[in-house]
Each structure stands twice: as C-alpha cells, then as structure tokens.
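Re: the request from the purification team.
They wanted to know what the chain is likely to look like in 3D before they choose a buffer screen. I agreed to run a prediction and write the result into the notebook, where they can find it.
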Amino acid sequence: MARKSVKITVCTMAAVMAFSGMNITADAAASSSVLPSGGIELTLAKGNKLESLSAGTNNTKQIESIIETVLRDDQMDTTPEASEEESFKNLVIAQVNDYVNVRSMPSEQGEIVGKLYDDSVGLFISEENGWYQISSGSVTGYVKAEYCVTGDEAVELAKKVGTRLATVNTTTLKVRTEPSLEASVLGLVPLEDDLVVSDEADGWVQVDTEEGLGWVSTEFVSLHTEFVEAESKEEEEKRLAKEKQERERARAAAAAKAAGSSKSSSGSAPAVTYTASGDSEMGTAVADYALQFVGNPYVYGGSSLTNGTDCSGFVMSVYANFGVSLPHSSSADRSQGAAVDGLANAQAGDLICYSGHVALYIGNGQIVHASTAKTGIIVSNADYKKVLAVRRIF
C-alpha cells in the first residue's frame, strides 16, 4: 500500500550487511563486529532536491543553511504532492564491506573526516570527478562514487536497508487485530517504544509486536524510516572512550555488588533447566541469574522478577542485581552499552532488541525474556523474529 509519511529520519542503527564482490582500497575498509552507536536525526521534506546545490561547493555554512531550510519546509508541509520514495533519490547509500572514508576534498589526499558505514546513508549535495559530496550526521565531505549508489538505484535499496518504524506518542497504545477501533485488542505498547511497520492503510499501520502482527492508528504514532549514518573521527573517538568507561563502570558496579552481598534466588524454579554459555564471565553470570525467573508472570509495566514484569522491566531488574542501571524502555535499550554486529557475534548477557521488545541472550542461539501475558518469562530462539540491535553492557 502507498506510504503517506513525508519524513525520512536519518539516524544510527546497529546493522551492517556484508556486500560481496567489492574490492577494498584505501577508501573502503574490511568488516568488523563493532559498530557506532552515536548519531543525529535529520528530517528531509519530501520533494526537496539537494541535487540543485552548486557542484563542488565546500561551504559548510551554506550547506547547513540549506538543510535548515529543508527542515523548515518539512515542518510547514509545503510539498504534500511528493512521496517519501522520491526523497530517497536524494540519498547516497554506501555499498562496501565495512565503511568508506569520508574525506575533506574529492581526492584520496583529502583528510579523513569520518566513516560512512555499509548500507548507511548520506544526503547528496554534488558530484565531482567520481566523488559524491554528502552530508550525513555531523559529517560533511566526499566519498568515492564507486562505493555508493544514489538516484533511482537508491530508491529500491533504501527500502531494503532502511527500517520503517512507528514510534508510540501516547502513554499506552492499544494494538488491534484489525485496522478498526471496533477490533479486539491484541496487546499494549508503552510510550516511545519503536515498532517495525509491515504494512500501511488509510489512518492505520500494521506493526510487529510480541503478541504478533497487529494494527495501530497513525494518530498515536510517528512514522519514520531509520538508516545508519556517518560517524565523524571525533564521534568515533568519544564513542570508543565512552564505551570503555561504561564497561569498566558496569564491571566495577557488579564487583561491588558481589562483594557486598551474596546473590540470592527468589524466583520460581523452572520446569526445565537452562544453562547460559559464553566467553564473557560477567555476561554469563547475568544470563544465569535471569534464568532463575523462567516461569514467572508477565505484567505490563511491571518490573518484579517474581510477581510480574514486562520485557524491559525484566532486563532492567536483572541488571540491577549486578549494580547496573538500565532504562525501563525497550526502545531506549537499543542505545545502551556498545553495539554488536548481529547475533553471530552475540555473547551471554547481551541485550537483543526487537520491534517493541527486548530480551537477554543466554548463548547457543537462545534468549530469556518476559514475552507475553500468556507465556510469562520464557526461553526462546533468538532469531524467532527480526533483530533490530544487539547491545553489550559488559
């Protein structure tokens, strides 16, 4: 069905897909399992053509002024006739093994000012001698055109690499079985949670929830498409330092907690015994502790491991036992700790983030999570549905 949203939101997501057959040069790097977690949201009004900028310009103030104008135009909705897909033509999408360098000028002699990761996007500004000038996140610079696509090619690729999301803007959103206020309620979703959109109809969108596919009114959600964006050298340095500091703080908190009191078990004994496994001693300890509560109830908005909790309350309370503070929000959990490149690199204790849901990885391709009111806290296969992000706390 036709999409009616007028906005493209460009922000960081922890998702990297390998692109086979691309030769690596000085401006295209090999893959790794650690991804950036920072980013700035940028909204494009549909129909604005950044191709119209003067070719070869390197005037940062001019670029910022134009982007600000685009933002104002979007807020005033002055171009309702254009579609979101038309705005995708303004994207430059990287197609490399890991990232392509963003340089200060259209030459390999230019200073590296940032990285545009595989399947991530920038906004097209101009083209010069086989280089695209782009703006992405806080980075403005040049990338080799041979490692990117734009225009009509970007339109189709953007649908594959972007994630269409509905962000809840009401306190408690009712998800219904059909696109009608008369339909029965499938489940409830809290404020600011992000749900993956699978279909759109007049005034309604179909979203992926833990209870299954359901429908929500567009009156109570904000629709946008998320992409990975560039990371500047300064942002990368700050991110790595922050992630190191957070890991050290989390380990220190866990050690202090362990020294202050012995770990207690007050959960119901599961009918089946599960064992966590992994290379991270601390992460395995987190997973082992979480497994004690399998069989206990799910309660929307709850955070009690024994009397009832929802998904984010579950991971929050489990990590609280180790002295680590996490938010009571599955959406916010997507930015906690450090990004991990997919389930293949997950370790016990990692947060596995889904559409409107979060779980704890226990190893061997499995998770423990507060699933639904019907199932309570259970163990499932980690790939039971699409993973949006994997985050490492320790």
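For the purification team: Residues 1-26, 31-35, 37-82, 262-271 have pLDDT under 50 and may be disordered.
Please add any questions underneath this entry.
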